[in-house]
Amino acid sequence: MSLAQDRDKENLQISEETFEIIRHIAELFRVDLTTSQLAICVEILHREMPRKIKKHSGELEKEEEKLRSAIDDIHRRIKQVPEMKDKVNESLSAIQGLIDKNKLSIGSKISGPLRSKVINIYTNAKEACAAEENFLRALLTDIDNVRKVQYEIRRSTQVGRGELMQLIAHHARTAPLWIGPIDTHPPPLVGGISAPETMDLKVGSEVAAFIDGIWILAEVVTILPNGKYEVKDVDDELTKKHLIKRKKLIPLPHWRADPLRDSHALFPLNAIVLALYPQTTCFYKGVVEHVPEVSSDDYLVAFEDASFSQGYSPPLPVPQRYVINHVLPKQYSKTKRRQ
């Protein structure tokens, strides 16, 4: 096979490594390649390059630069947290000092200058606490935005399905924890609280999509004017897209529920759910065998599986993000009823 001609390599501008790969393939199949055939092979190799090589694109480099800048800004702002905490503690100490000095208690009647002083001190303390809360919530929001960008960058550069599965699981377990105001109910998409079917989805949102008779982990890529959505399987490197109605999409939880604060936002024991089977991107029917006890815990889910004598698999860990309401699409339900 005459592939080692220097002019061929120079004209096609391919690396020695690529050239050797093609040569070995040609030898394996015992075929001779002409210069034009070599060019076709090079084009195919470049088109099918693993995603890891794509990370050097200009667009991705810009994203990484923005990411580094955002992380630096977060580090700078984190250093301000102790200072804000000190201000809160000082204002609370002032309140306690005033109470001790004037021997105040709940129900005490206060008037005159003392009343004005108490109101002023309490107002300052309330403002300090509110400023600290707003600062921390904004900081946590920015941290979550960085987490999402890192996830997208890593997902676009991952090589190998095993690494992708690990990334998906890590992304779920590091989802933000819902910490709402006191005496408020968690909103939809906290833990097991589902969103209404009328809720619009955003581009980039991860969903469970009912495609070809199975629920898969997918990403919304386009929102069409007719109310349909274009989604792609997160595990499909060919980026094949599917056109699907909203009723066949289930948005995934945005936040983890804290069992110590919002246990009512979690699925109860023995609840029938759809859960992402470990090391796959498919959701299957299962039963909750164990509910998270702390915010870092996973559910334990027994999946419906006829290969086991009891009809269910042994309990397997599934992060909160990938445990959702069990839903049967309407057309599927009608088909079952006719039978």
TrEMBL record:
<keyword id="KW-0805">Transcription regulation</keyword>
<dbReference type="InterPro" id="IPR047287">
    <property type="entry name" value="Tudor_SGF29_rpt2"/>
</dbReference>
<keyword id="KW-0804">Transcription</keyword>
<dbReference type="GO" id="GO:0000124">
    <property type="term" value="C:SAGA complex"/>
</dbReference>
<dbReference type="InterPro" id="IPR037802">
    <property type="entry name" value="SGF29"/>
</dbReference>
<feature type="domain" description="SGF29 C-terminal">
    <location>
        <begin position="197"/>
        <end position="332"/>
    </location>
</feature>
<dbReference type="InterPro" id="IPR010750">
    <property type="entry name" value="SGF29_tudor-like_dom"/>
</dbReference>
<dbReference type="GO" id="GO:0005634">
    <property type="term" value="C:nucleus"/>
</dbReference>
<keyword id="KW-0539">Nucleus</keyword>
<dbReference type="Pfam" id="PF07039">
    <property type="entry name" value="SGF29_Tudor"/>
</dbReference>
<dbReference type="InterPro" id="IPR047288">
    <property type="entry name" value="Tudor_SGF29_rpt1"/>
</dbReference>
<protein>
    <submittedName>
        <fullName>SGF29 C-terminal domain-containing protein</fullName>
    </submittedName>
</protein>
